[in-house]
Each structure stands twice: as C-alpha cells, then as structure tokens.
Specification:
4 helices; mainly alpha; transmembrane; membrane; transmembrane helix; about 110 residues; about 50% helix
C-alpha cells in the first residue's frame, strides 16, 4: 500500500508518473525533444532578440542588429556560427535577461546539426 501524497499546481501537471516495461513516458504528445527546423529555430531567435533589444544601449543594439541581419536557414553552419557567436556574446553580457537569446542560439546550432 502506498501513502504517496501528490500536490499539483499550475497547468500541464500530470501527477505521479510511474513506468513499468520499456519505452518512454510521453505526456502531451508523441514527439518528445523533437528538433526544430533551422527556419523555426531562427524565427524563435529573432523573437528573443526583439525582447533583448530594449535592454541594450545604442552601440550594443547596433552590433546585435548587424549580427542578426540576414540570418538564412539555408546558409551553411560555418557561415552562421560567427554571427550566432556574436549574438550569444552580446546576450551573455547583459546577464539573465539575455538568457533566452543564448538558449535560442543553442537551439539554432542544434537544428543546424554538426
């Protein structure tokens, strides 16, 4: 007999997930951790950049805009890496508020593959 107590708060909670047998526990869909396409990842990055722009001075904003200009999902990874590195570096300099941009850059790199 189990005396587990489960308290759920917020949306998306499933309670206690137990697993016996083989396979993955999947909640909310059948594609867990599906990689984004480069185009989708770049769209997410552009959105994150828009949120960051208001926290930057004019010089950093201009640097960010120049690095983010014409990011093409069809471009080779090597061509995009320099720009993505500059974008992530600028975002990292402003601290926690730049976190979503850094995460979006990592997602773009993951979508581009090795």
């Amino acid at each position: 007999m189990s005396s587990d107590q489960i308290h759920q708060y917020g949306s998306g909670n499933i309670g206690k997930a137990t697993h016996t047998g083989s396979g993955d526990i999947v909640v909310g869909g059948k594609t867990v951790g599906a990689a984004a396409t480069p185009a989708t990842a770049l769209d997410d990055l552009r959105s994150a950049i828009e949120g960051l722009r208001t926290h930057l001075d004019d010089t950093r904003r201009a640097e960010l805009d120049a690095a983010a200009e014409d990011l093409d999902p069809e471009a080779p990874r090597a061509e995009l890496e320099g720009r993505l590195t500059r974008i992530a570096g600028i975002a990292a300099l402003v601290g926690a508020v730049g976190g979503p941009v850094v995460a979006a850059v990592q997602a773009v790199l993951a979508a581009l593959g090795a």
